[in-house]
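Sequence and structure are kept together here, with a separate record for every protein. A complete record is shown below as an example:
=====
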Amino acid sequence: MGLCCFGSSDRVEPGPPQSGRRRGSDDFHGVVDERSCTDIVFLAIFLAFLGGLGYGLYYAVERGDINRMVFGFDIDGDICGRPNRPHPNITTSGKDTTRQTFLDIESFNLNNLDPVIMGRCVNSCPTNRSPPILNRCLEIHATSTEATNWFLSSTGLAKFFNQFALDFQLCWREVVYLCLISLGLSLVLTVLFRFLAGAMIWLLLIALVLGSLGGTGYLWWLWHGMRGTSGENSMMAYAILMSIVSVLILLIVLAMRKRVELVAALFREAGKSVHAMPLLLIQPIWTLLALCVLCAAWAYAALWIESAGYPTRTEAGTVFFRKDTFLQVIRWYNIFAALWISQLCLACQNLIIAGAVADWFFTRDKSRLGCPVARSVGYAVRYHLGSLAFGSLLIALMKLVRMLFNYLERKLRNANTTCFGLVTCLTCFCKCCLYCFEKFLQGLCSNAYIEIAIYGENFCWSAGRAFKMLSNNALRVIAINSVGDFILFLGKAGVVTAVVFIGIELIKDKPGVVYIWTPILIAAIFAYLIAHCFISVFEMCIDTVFICFCEDCEINNGQDQPYFMSRGLMEFVEKSKKALRARAGRDRARQQQPKGAYDNPVMDSVNDHGPWNTGVPPPPYEFHPTAPPLSSRR
């Protein structure tokens, strides 16, 4: 859910007004409305990147034919099942293979070198070949066929796979029903998190403490029963170790109890935000559709790139399509484009959710909230596509580095290296470091998007601001990451478990079903994915509420500069009693005003003795305070 550093206290201490880009409460009245485009350079780089991708695909289309990958081509480079034009320098090419729709593939060794694969177009697959697989007849050796048949028949897997398909065919409607049930349970879960998160957290911690203490007592009881035997010393060591662990767990729970209460309060506030803005739950659907379209487009482009090349005849007499350097670069270019665009889609979802939740948090009168989701979408598309491109670029580069490193690792493992053990240790260490750094970048970017949603600043400033907020509240971040993530995981597991039991009741009496767990397993997988989509929204809401809570404490002091947060969160702020008394005083003063004299909720942020407390009705139009000045450094 966030990042971790060091040092924190039990409560957040309100900070003094700051100078520079951000000032005190007099200049900050919520999410900044007056914005300008941020990180335009990276938006231009992204558009230029898309232009380069378009040219690369045009280059591949001009030199390729996607039918080569779909239908296959023979030893002369002619595509099966269609008329062909002759290739340059290939005199035997250009045959009409309209009636030969299948490609018969066989391999042989030439001069004890690597196997040579040859193909010819045929009307139907020969008897010693497999049934057509993607219009290709594959070679099957007798020994492997006999071994496979013996294995399937002796183990019963052949009958199992056939029955697996039949069971799913009989129960596909029940699988759809279970997916819809998981959708409803996920919606109910977001409501339960709001009301039952505190009880779930404390039950979890109590069970953890009681379990550790019970395990410690059991080990000491076993040690007492083994006194005088050979295993006495070992059992004593286990009991002492478990005692130390139990004491540490108890001390950690006692030290983190205030922070655990903050986690429960954040769950409640996130539940309120989702209840106030139900359109947030639709965001994963659009993201999923965008990623599906991206995967289809990437696969289509990859087929064109792999089919492109210049026909060249080898020494064995076969024709292959040789790729030049540019085509080899385009292959990796297409992979990186998929990584970058997919991360951009996820970044857009995070920024939209963060913008809507931040708008909800910094609005005093929730009845005048309007449509924050649509407003957040407009801000993201109009002003912050450059920042989104920057953040997604960092994560995409990190993923590409990990892919290249895994590729090099496989090459080293296949090579005959003298220091194989040392290479394995180094590669494992580097993979671990790269994975941790990628997770760090993902957390940093996610929290930077929250700061962008609040202030409308560029990515670098927002990332630095988010890192400062998280490092100043590191222990709370640890509590959110540990306890909060585990509660969210329990929610996913609860949805899957409920779907499994409901599925058993639905399918157990259905005639013809042999393996009842076949459709239930498929439904459980889809249930987990659906629950993950909804809970990812809730997780982003929790992170946004936490950052907004820290920003509210940093800007305001709760007295002459009132907090935006609710009373539930105000309990975790230093001098919260004074802030609550100040808010109660403002509420009493508002109630004592003549009707219409103090009905503008925005004015709750102004001193009670200020110019708005004059008994004069507010203007008939909606009040929009001036946002703090934006920096020219974008």
